[in-house]
Specification:
alpha/beta, Aspartate Aminotransferase, domain 1, Ornithine Decarboxylase, Chain A, domain 4, seven-stranded mixed sheet, 17 helices, binds pyridoxal-5'-phosphate
């Protein structure tokens, strides 16, 4: 038996850069306005003595009938669902499972196996939805909203959806497995889920919502969660806004789905895209979150946090900052519209970092700050002061120069690229990496896009056009994988 000291990492023989970074970061007094929602201070220990596997009595996530099922039942009551399944690999895992389930459920209803499944989706879908299309072989019909100020937004209206559903020939050779909406989006824009659900249900179609950013919406005094508004299958990244460890998420199944609900089938769908060793630390944090959330609506924790943000927004708006989105627990400064568009994409982010505040995201168009009730009162004050500093810069910008300009031309000019293959048809084809300048007319096979926000300007199987090249360059993407031509093979 090795002595306990022998098992200590020997830093002199091997570097530990990740541990070093985390230890140093944890030791600093940095204001965490980025995920996860526990802000480094959730109750309870996350120590390794709690990190176990499926030992006797610990239940098993994908065959849960013991403590995990009991805990999920608690979550289901809190979220008002038929069942809320725990997920340990984020919404990225839940989104793929959700698409598979939608296909299975619609297949049962349509009684067909010969037709191809298709899902209608807002074009600001996270890349895990595109991976789902690649892996599951469904077709995608994209909806592109008007007045797009960013690739991250896409305002899908009930009218747009109705029009798509009534398009002549839409159903030829295929069956519609669902409608997929991202709400809230990364910039805090929220879709009218109630109205979209009404359209979907009128046509007998399931509504799937990527609510990765909106777990907490359930616990506002005015419940704005998509399940409450009528969505059928919803994924939440609990870790983004609740005191839950990174990776912790839910797949919610609405009470509407009573008839076709098959718990084993849903667990199998999740298992298909996840590790067979789900983390008990994450499961524990989801379990502990129930205890936190059970008193939340009454205590108004989230409402109080949102009120503070709303105050900051209104004072800073008066000082010239323009905010985007109506999601109440996020601050999203539209830098371009505030007249603060800088050539250097890191400029606004660095103002915050220099003051020991780490934002969730900052590029040259947007600065995103994500809060939770676990932020300390002084965090809000400090953020407000730095926003004032930013607002001062807007006064120095000539009103005629760039104020009110919301997005670069290439983003506003985005139109759907021509589709040559479905994503699933290209995933196994030979590919080659080229400079984006040489990609005109070639078929995209993959896009190295950073995460967050992980929204793809061009989807595998689509032809790269001139404007797409401009968008790729705008976001600093230098290379792209494209389909290998016959001559290259
Ligand atoms: C809109 C949206 N959907 C899905 C995801 C994936 O969530 P997760 O990180 O929990 O896998 C993200 C991640 O940032 C996201 O922004």
């Amino acid at each position: 038996m090795p002595a306990k000291d022998d098992l200590k990492p020997k830093k002199e023989t091997c570097s530990t850069p990740i541990a070093d970074f985390l230890d140093e970061y944890a030791g600093k007094q940095v204001v965490r306005v980025h995920m996860p929602g526990h802000k480094g201070s959730a109750s309870g220990s996350f120590a390794s003595d709690l990190d176990i596997t499926e030992i006797s009595g610990a239940d098993s996530l994908y065959e849960a009938d013991g403590i995990i099922l009991e805990s999920e039942n608690n979550a289901s009551v809190l979220f008002g669902t038929k069942h809320s399944f725990y997920v340990t690999e984020g919404s990225s895992q839940a989104i793929k499972a959700m698409c598979l389930l939608a296909i299975r459920l619609s297949q049962k209803q349509a009684g067909t196996v010969t037709k191809k499944p298709v899902i209608i989706a807002g074009r600001n879908a996270h890349r895990s939805f595109v991976s789902a299309a690649e892996l599951l072989g469904f077709e995608v019909e994209w909806l592109v909203g008007e007045n797009r100020a960013s690739l991250m937004e896409c305002r899908v209206t009930p009218e747009m959806l109705e029009k798509k559903l009534c398009e002549a020939g839409f159903y030829d050779g295929r069956f519609l497995a669902g409608i997929y909406i991202t709400s809230p989006d990364y910039l805090g824009n929220m879709a009218d889920i109630k109205a979209l659900a009404e359209v979907a249900h009128k046509h007998g179609i399931l509504l799937l919502v990527d609510n990765a950013h909106g777990s907490y919406l359930k616990f506002l005094k005015k419940d704005r969660h998509p399940v409450t508004s009528g969505a059928d299958l919803v994924c939440d990244s609990a870790h983004k806004t609740l005191p839950v460890l990174t990776g912790g998420a839910y797949l919610h199944v609405s009470k509407r789905l009573k008839k076709d609900f098959d718990m084993t089938e849903i667990r199998q769908a999740l298992l298909r895209f996840g590790s067979t060793s789900p983390s008990y630390l994450i499961l524990r944090s989801l379990d502990m979150a129930n205890a936190f959330l059970s008193g939340c609506a009454e205590e108004g924790y989230f409402d109080k946090c949102c009120e503070k943000i709303s105050e900051i927004k209104s004072i800073c708006s008066e000082k010239g900052l323009v905010f985007s989105g109506d999601e109440p627990m996020k601050l999203c400064v539209n830098l371009a519209a505030s007249g603060l568009k800088e050539e250097k994409s890191t400029a606004a982010g660095n103002i915050f970092r220099n003051m020991e505040i780490e934002p969730e995201f900052a590029d040259r168009d947007y600065l995103i700050l994500m809060f939770s009730p676990l932020n300390k009162p002084e965090d809000f004050e400090k953020v407000k002061q730095v926003l004032f500093m930013l607002a001062e810069k807007t006064g120095k910008v000539s009103q005629t120069k760039s104020k009110g300009v919301c997005a670069d031309d290439c983003i506003r000019d985005f139109s759907m690229p021509v589709k040559k293959h479905e994503p699933s048809e290209i995933i196994l084809l030979p590919r080659v990496k080229v400079n984006v300048n040489d990609a005109l007319g070639l078929v995209a096979a993959d896009v190295p896009v950073s995460c967050p926000p992980a929204i793809l300007p061009v989807i595998p199987g689509e032809v790269v056009d001139e404007n797409i090249i401009k968008i790729l360059k705008y976001y600093g993407i230098k290379e792209i994988y494209v389909e290998k031509s016959f001559e290259q093979i």
